[in-house]
UniProtKB/TrEMBL annotation:
Entries under PANTHER family matching the protein: SLL0310 PROTEIN
SUPFAM superfamilies assigned to the protein according to its UniProt record, in alphabetical order: Acyl-CoA N-acyltransferases (Nat)
Ranges of residues in domain N-acetyltransferase: 53-105
Species for this entry: Pristionchus fissidentatus
Pfam families on file: Acetyltransf_1
Matching CDD domains: NAT_SF
The protein, known as: N-acetyltransferase domain-containing protein
GO terms for MF: acyltransferase activity, transferring groups other than amino-acyl groups
Matching InterPro entries: Acyl/Acetyltrans_Enzymes, Acyl_CoA_acyltransferase, GNAT_dom
Organism superkingdom: Eukaryota
C-alpha cells in the first residue's frame, strides 16, 4: 500500500487485448471487490462480447494482471464498466496511465462516454470526463425466507408462468421482442447469452395470446461459497407481478443453499424507486453512480423497471 510514498511499479506493458490469464485474474479481482452490479454472467461475457474493448497493464515478468480499463461500444456510446488497478498499486500512478491510453482509443470514435462509479469516486470522475449524473443504484440484500415473506404479501398475478429453462423457441424470440420494447435497445448479443447460461434462470408471465408481458431473471454473484444471487432484471406492471415472478425464482436459489441471499438493485427514477423501495423493508446502500460525458436519451421504460438489468458490460436497462 502507498502511504503518501509512490510505490515502485514493476516493469509492465500496456496491451489492447486480454489473455486468458489477464481475464481470469480480472474476474477474480472484481469478485474480491464485491461489486454487486457485476454478476457472474456479466463477468463471463465481457471477454467474448464483440462490443468489448480493453486496456490492460500486464507485468512483464509473468504477464499477470496489474490493472485495466474495460468498456463496451454500442449505441454510439462507450460504456466503461471497469477501471481499477491491483490493490497493491492503488494511488501509485499506474491507473492514470491506463486511463489515458483508454481515452486515446475512445475519443477518436466520438462516442458518448459513460461509466459506473462507486460513490466516493464519483466527484473525481464528474470533474473530468463524465460530468453528467444519469442515475444511481441502491442495493438491497434479502435472504430467501425474507424474500418469500415479502412476496407473500401480494396476490398472485394472473397469467401463465413460464421458466426460461422450459421456454419454446417462440417464447424466447418473443422475450427478445419484449426486452427491446422495454429497454429501447437491441441487446440480443447480450441477452441470448444470458438466457442460455447454466448459471441463470428466468421466468415470464404470458397472456392468453402467448405473448410475454412481464419478466424476471436471476443469476449468481461472487464466489460459489458466498451463495449470492442477483435478481435482474424485473420488468413488470405491478408489485403483484413483481412478487409472482420473484416467487417463482426463489427455489432456484434455495437449491444451492437454504441460506442463499438475493440482491435487488433499485434504479433511481424508476417504478422500483417509487413503489418497491418504500415497501421492501430493507436498508438501502448507494452502490453505484452512473455518469456520462453528456446528456443522453435513456430509452428504458422506467414505469415497468422494478430492477434493472445492469452489468459492467451494459448500461442500466
Amino acid at each position: 500500500i502507498c502511504f503518501g510514498v509512490r510505490m515502485s511499479i514493476p516493469p509492465y506493458t500496456l496491451v489492447d487485448e486480454g489473455s486468458e490469464l489477464l481475464w481470469t485474474q480480472f474476474q477474480n479481482q472484481v469478485r474480491e471487490m464485491n461489486w454487486t452490479s457485476d454478476d457472474n454472467i456479466g463477468l463471463g461475457l465481457v471477454p467474448v462480447l464483440p462490443t468489448t474493448r480493453c486496456v490492460f497493464a500486464k507485468k512483464n515478468e509473468d504477464g499477470s494482471f496489474l490493472g485495466c480499463v474495460v468498456w463496451n461500444e454500442y449505441d454510439e456510446m462507450a460504456f466503461i464498466g471497469f477501471y481499477f488497478v491491483h490493490p497493491s498499486l492503488k494511488k501509485c500512478g499506474l491507473g492514470s496511465k491506463i486511463w489515458a491510453r483508454a481515452m486515446e482509443r475512445i475519443h477518436p470514435t466520438k462516442r458518448v462516454i459513460g461509466l459506473r462509479a462507486v460513490p466516493e469516486m464519483a466527484p473525481r470522475y464528474a470533474s473530468k470526463d463524465t460530468p453528467v449524473e444519469i442515475s444511481r443504484l441502491r442495493k438491497n440484500v434479502l435472504t430467501c425466507s425474507e424474500m418469500r415473506e415479502f412476496c407473500g404479501r401480494y396476490p398472485t398475478s394472473s397469467g401463465t408462468l413460464v421458466l426460461v429453462s422450459q421456454m419454446t423457441k417462440e417464447h424466447k424470440e418473443d422475450l427478445l421482442r419484449f426486452d427491446a420494447e422495454i429497454t429501447g435497445r437491441q441487446r440480443s448479443d447480450f441477452l441470448v447469452r444470458f438466457l442460455s447460461s447454466p448459471i441463470s434462470e428466468g421466468v415470464a408471465l404470458v397472456n392468453g395470446e402467448g405473448k410475454i408481458y412481464a419478466f424476471a431473471g436471476i443469476t449468481t454473484f461472487g464466489f460459489a461459497e458466498d451463495h449470492f444471487f442477483k435478481l435482474a432484471p424485473v420488468y413488470a406492471s405491478t408489485l403483484s407481478e413483481f412478487a409472482t415472478l420473484t416467487s417463482a425464482l426463489i427455489p432456484y436459489c434455495e437449491k444451492v443453499s437454504a441460506n442463499s441471499r438475493i440482491i435487488v438493485h433499485i434504479l433511481t427514477g424508476t417504478v422500483g424507486e417509487r413503489e418497491l423501495e418504500p415497501v421492501i423493508g430493507n436498508p438501502q446502500h448507494i452502490e453505484c453512480v452512473t455518469l456520462f460525458s453528456s446528456k443522453i436519451e435513456n430509452k428504458l421504460n422506467a414505469n415497468v423497471c422494478y430492477a434493472p438489468h445492469n452489468s459492467g458490460c451494459h448500461f442500466d436497462g
